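User: Is it possible to get a 3D structure for a protein together with its bound compound? The compound here is adenosine-5'-diphosphate. I've pasted both below.
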Amino acid sequence: MAGAKKSPTKKLFLEAVYKHSSEAIAILDRQDHIVELNPAACKLFGATKKKLIGKLIGDFLLSSIDSQQVQKRAKIQLKQPQGKTKVAEYSLVKDFLPHHNLLVFRDITDSIQQEATELNLHHQRVELFAEVTLKIRQSLQLPEILQTAVSEVQRILQADRVLIYQVFSNGTGMPIKEAVLPDFKPILGVEFPEEVFPADYRQLYTQGRIRAIANVHAPDAGLAECLIEFMKEWQIKSKLVVPILQNTKSSSKGEHLWGLLIAHQCQAPREWTEFEQELMQQLADQIGIALFQGELLENLEGIVAERTAKLRQEISERQAALRERTKAETALRHSEEQLRLIANGLPVLIAYVDCQQHYRFNNQAYQTWLGLSPEEMSDRHLAQVHGKDEYQQISQYVATALKGETVTYERDLVLQDGCVHSLSVTYIPHLQSQNTIQGFFALSSDISDRKAIERMKDEFLSVVSHELRTPLTSIHSSLKILATGKLGSLSHQGKRMLKIADEQTERLVHLVNNVLDLQRIQSGKINMNKQACQTKELMVEAVQAMKNLAQEQGIQLSFKPNDLIVWADRDYIVQTLTNLVSNAIKFSPPKSTVMLFASPQKNRDRVLKDTASCSISSSGETPPTLFRASHLAEALPHRQNQSISYITFAVQDRGQGIPQDRLETIFERFQQVDSSDSRKKGGTGLGLAICRQIVEGHGGQIWAESGLENGSTFYFTLPELIQ
Ligand code: ADP
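Assistant: Yes, that's possible. Here is the predicted structure of the complex:
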């Protein structure tokens, strides 16, 4: 300060500032020797002014002054006695006086230390909080979380009691978790009286307010009398209460007061620091989160449990279904095996042909009968297996089966034994849903033996009949001559006997003729002489032939004349009509009428279908012959490419009628509804069988309809000739 001329006041002022400044001020010469320093500087460097003057400033510093730090503050560490250090901020004023610099230090050791302490504290807090949060989060079980929270808070805050108080929906509540030092009474499970936890408190807590009361007995605590009593009872001197708010899906407001996290100090009052309050607050928040997660978890567990139950159910259902399927498959395999065994054991050819006409299955008999192994047939086309010629013969039946109609036909075949065998073949269509045809089953049986027997029977009948006919004819003639009386008159008794003999002979002749007729027609030995025939003429002829018989029986014959023309053998059709009319007369009561009429076939489809299938519906001994519309088309003149129409003849009577169950069988040989018929009415039981053979020989169909007591109507169809 030497040489400076100042006013005395200013000088005093500057001296006072210099002396009392809290900042350390030192003046240095060019070589950094201390020239002058104020008391604060002495204090900072820890020595008296005397000891410091003349010393190098560097002796007191841990680093050197940055001479560039002019007018700027910088930090520097100062040496202290006993190895201690201080931290100061300094600023340098260069050439503040000629050849002198000014250094101003400010001691910031305390503030740095405070900062460090605060940082440390903060760090500690974060660590503690992280530790507790981790512990809470490590568990998914709410009771465990709550217990951890109270124990940890008690440990960290060194509180005498920490508890979690749950608020129930009716406003009451009780401590459900507690960590309490052994010296103090546990409060767990004690329901707080209403006045201890009134509604306005609840309101405040719901808003998230914390209550920290250092001394519950201090007048400024403002606690109600009853509350103070309660505090006394539970030795509470100081308390910190933090709300636990739960974010629920169910709460429309988003958060509701689930409970309270409470710390009690029982030994002495306690000031709750900000840190402690914050810690409690953050833990309460964590509990709130845990509660929310717990609720989610509960829901999730519910969903998982439900889903698991469903899955279990599904699995067990699937397992049951699988078991069922396996069982069904085993049963199927078993039954397939059985079927295969049966199919292989049967003396019948059994095969399955798909809609592409490929063999899909065939039984063992194919191998033994035809010498065809399964490999030679499986998946092969019918033409490949049987050859072109044979395939041509059977293809029409295959086509019929693939149209959905059952068809039966016969054919002769040379089997592996080198002999010709007669086979009866039936194709049964395999229909699946929506009536789609998947293929057909082919069943062939060897009917050679049956055929041979039939042939023998027919031959026998033929021979016997022929042998009978000649003597019978002469017996009949002789009887007729005797009856004339030209050879002498007979007694009354003798005439009666002669009449019986004549009638019976006539019957026998009739029978023999019928047998021969039937045998001839069946054997196909006769040629039908088909031609255009007027229906009217046919009916007139039949009526003429039966006129006498009708008169004898008192029956009226009538017919509706019309001009339809059929393609038929006149004699055979007249024979058919005569036969039917004779039956009608026989079975009609006197004075009734027998009607004949002919009309165009109304339901042609039915007839065509029935005609095609009549071969299998017939149960006659005689193997049925198949007549198809296509054959007729070829037989009828000028009919190519035209569909065939039919004329239906009908003979109707008012007689005794025919039971429903006999309507089919009466067309078989020697079948009569009543066995006494032949005795009472005469007849052989062959008439209708002959009629059927004749009608079917024309490609038509014959059937009867009857209501008992309502009479019967016999119908037959013949192809119409349209000119
Ligand atoms: P039959 O020579 O015995 O008449 P058919 O073959 O002509 O032989 O007839 C067979 C049987 O059918 C008859 O014995 C009779 O029982 C029954 N029948 C045929 N036509 C009629 C009819 N119009 N009314 C009642 N029954 C009849």
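The chain has a mean pLDDT of 84. Residues 123-298 form a domain with the Beta-Lactamase fold (CATH 3.30.450.40).
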